[in-house]
Write a sequence for this structure.
């Protein structure tokens, strides 16, 4: 059943929802990365909650004008307008008052959301016969998704994605070093407004699928996941798009396999599963890789200690150390070092002496955290820094 | 180390500041500052912590918006000449865990060439690598910036500034917390810039090296406390006035006497 869903074999509506969710996830993941790297994830929360009053007001207006209150494009326009007002409120409170941004976010988020809930209640009493179903926009509801809705979501998502990618260079420069970016003629305030506008657009586009409460997860979780896999911002953006798109696709497919499985929350949980897998398995930053590194580190430390003992003609006491030395062809069974053992031992001693000198140096000692018995100092310092260390060693005998 | 250069007139100066006041909230941090940077020379901005040195640089670059004041760069408004200035911020001002590699940081110095969508071409990469080589970091191009020592981070920032091919270099504490090898690598680069006729202005915290490194000083403690060639402006009296009671008398005369 799940396989059928993944292959888009279980019906027209499910296919629409799956493809729409994938497009939304892709756009949200990539766009959210810029926000994540700018360390302003929380603003997205304020923006998304601020859509609710506009949503309800747009519904009332459309009904009052005699139209269909549930027209998605109309609801999106209303949400965008009120999210925009919420965004400007946060920006104004932060810039013009002494309120810190987190306090401004808290205030705007709760006031707008509270007001929105009041309006929702009013809508429910007004159109009792009509069953507006607006509360489905809180957590998303894909049950009656139309072809036009899916097109709107996909096109909107891809438009946002294209805009974010076009602005990637200034956005990343502002995130890394705003002062420098300003000297390059980049207007920081405009860039921040641009990224928030894109986030707002994603929120509005995602209302139908994941709803306004969970959209922030779709913006942030893929970026946090991608950060495990790459140390380069442009790749983090691409990977976040990939993870977001996958979560949308798989999550929507899973929720299509049984009636009553809510699409939005399942997509978010799928994203979380990818996050957890990355947390465990990613090379470098992952938990498993850290554990493996620890084991190999332990062996390297033994080997290093053995080599240092050889260099100083001291006996090697530990069995594991002796075994490692022998297995690496550095020591013969009778305890005499091989010729390679001799030269590796001398190199280890030289390296050790330099690390020792580094630890006592005023400004390089911060690097001593990278002395894991495995890293060669030649990989850590520039040649002139090493020459400086060697000078220090030569003038301060007794450190060797 | 005084050069026999004629004094630069304000309308020729790489950076001329008049009546600059900046305040955060209601508290003026720098007040009514005048400064005329000498062309082709190296100038140290010195003053105690919190004196407004960083703020002065940021206001000169319009990173913080001043309350009042006029700034000209090579005799013209900053907006028209901004491309001729390279800025090296305080190292501590950025997050070094940001996902980026050394070469990417240097490429940021080429933003004015690359623009929004321009492709990074082989000659851009070559240019960035040359700048890294100039600061002795050519083998570190592919490193994650978080793995660098403080001195290496500072060199990367300097390489990014070199990539801009600017005429005026503004550096905020380039020698703070760096190792001896980095300090001499940086001062070599700065002196080579001066030899090319460029102008260097650096916030400097170490009074004992002012004389060896710079031609001019600008002393500041919220207000301007002195300006001019080392021999005339860097005296026990001016330093005492700038630092107030923060330095002992013996220390000051030792620091400011010619070697
Ligand atoms: N963004 C800011 N907001 C409020 N106060 C600031 C800000 N930046 C600096 N200050 C204050 O302005 C004063 C001058 O700071 P700064 O220019 O960094 O001094 P310096 O670089 O000479 O040490 C300090 O008292 C500092 O606390
Ligand atoms: Mg400062």
């Amino acid at each position: 059943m799940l396989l059928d869903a993944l292959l888009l074999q279980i019906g027209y509506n499910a296919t629409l929802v799956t493809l729409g969710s994938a497009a939304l996830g892709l756009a949200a993941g990539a766009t959210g990365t810029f926000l994540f790297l700018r360390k302003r994830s929380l603003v997205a929360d304020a923006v998304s909650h601020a859509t609710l009053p506009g949503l309800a007001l747009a519904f009332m207006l459309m009904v009052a004008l005699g139209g269909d209150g549930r027209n998605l494009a109309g609801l999106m326009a209303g949400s965008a307008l009120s999210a925009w007002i919420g965004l400007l409120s946060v920006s104004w409170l932060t810039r013009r008052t002494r309120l810190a941004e987190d306090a401004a976010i808290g205030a705007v988020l709760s006031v707008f959301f509270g007001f929105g809930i009041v309006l929702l209640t009013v809508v429910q009493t007004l159109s009792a016969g009509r069953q507006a179903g607006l509360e489905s926009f809180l957590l998303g509801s894909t049950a009656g998704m139309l072809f036009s809705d899916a097109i709107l979501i996909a096109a909107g998502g891809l438009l946002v994605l294209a805009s974010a990618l076009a602005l990637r260079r200034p956005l990343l420069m502002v995130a890394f070093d705003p002062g420098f970016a300003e000297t390059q003629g980049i207007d920081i305030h405009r860039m921040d407004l641009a990224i928030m506008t894109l986030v707002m657009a994603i929120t509005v586009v995602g209302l139908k699928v994941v709803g306004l409460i969970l959209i922030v997860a779709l913006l942030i979780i893929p970026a946090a996941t991608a950060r495990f896999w790459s140390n380069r911002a442009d790749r983090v953006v691409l990977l976040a798009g990939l993870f977001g798109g996958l979560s949308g696709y798989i999550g929507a497919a899973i929720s299509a396999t049984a009636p009553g499985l809510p699409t939005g929350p399942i997509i978010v949980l799928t994203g979380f599963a990818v996050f957890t897998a990355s947390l465990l398995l990613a090379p470098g930053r992952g938990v498993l890789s850290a554990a493996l590194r620890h084991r190999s580190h332990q062996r390297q430390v033994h080997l290093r200690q053995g080599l240092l003992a050889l260099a100083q003609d001291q006996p090697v006491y530990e069995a594991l150390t002796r075994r490692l030395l022998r297995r690496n062809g550095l020591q013969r069974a009778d305890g005499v070092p091989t010729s390679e053992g001799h030269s590796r031992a001398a190199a280890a001693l030289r390296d050790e002496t330099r690390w020792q000198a580094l630890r006592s140096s005023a400004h390089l000692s911060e690097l001593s955290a990278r002395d894991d018995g495995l890293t060669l100092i030649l990989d850590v310092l520039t040649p002139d820094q090493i020459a400086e260390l060697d000078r220090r060693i030569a003038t301060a005998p007794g450190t060797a | 180390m005084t050069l026999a250069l004629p004094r630069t007139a304000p309308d020729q100066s790489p950076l001329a500041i008049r009546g600059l006041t900046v305040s955060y909230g209601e508290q003026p941090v720098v007040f009514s500052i005048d400064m005329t940077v000498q062309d082709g020379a190296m100038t140290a901005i010195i003053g105690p912590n919190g004196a407004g040195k960083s703020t002065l640089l940021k206001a000169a670059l319009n990173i913080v918006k001043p309350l009042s004041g006029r700034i000209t760069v090579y005799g013209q408004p900053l907006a028209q000449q901004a491309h001729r200035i390279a800025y090296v911020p305080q190292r501590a001002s950025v997050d070094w865990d940001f996902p980026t590699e050394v070469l990417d940081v240097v490429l940021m110095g080429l933003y004015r060439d690359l623009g929004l969508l321009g492709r990074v071409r082989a000659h851009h990469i070559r240019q960035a690598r040359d700048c890294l080589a100039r600061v002795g970091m050519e083998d570190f191009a592919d490193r994650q910036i978080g793995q660098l020592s403080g001195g290496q981070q500072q060199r990367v920032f300097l390489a990014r500034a070199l990539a801009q091919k600017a005429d005026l270099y503004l550096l905020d504490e380039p020698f703070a917390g760096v190792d001896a090898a980095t300090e001499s690598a940086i001062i070599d680069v700065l002196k080579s810039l001066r030899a090319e006729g460029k102008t260097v202005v650096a916030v400097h915290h170490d009074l004992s090296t002012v004389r060896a490194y710079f031609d001019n000083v600008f002393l500041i403690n919220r207000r301007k406390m002195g300006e001019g060639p080392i021999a005339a402006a860097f005296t026990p009296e001016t330093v005492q006035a700038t630092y107030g009671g923060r330095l002992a008398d013996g220390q000051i005369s030792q620091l400011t006497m010619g070697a």
Q: What stands out?
A: Residues B 24, 29, 47, 49-55 surround adenosine-5'-diphosphate (ligand 1) (CB under 6 Å).
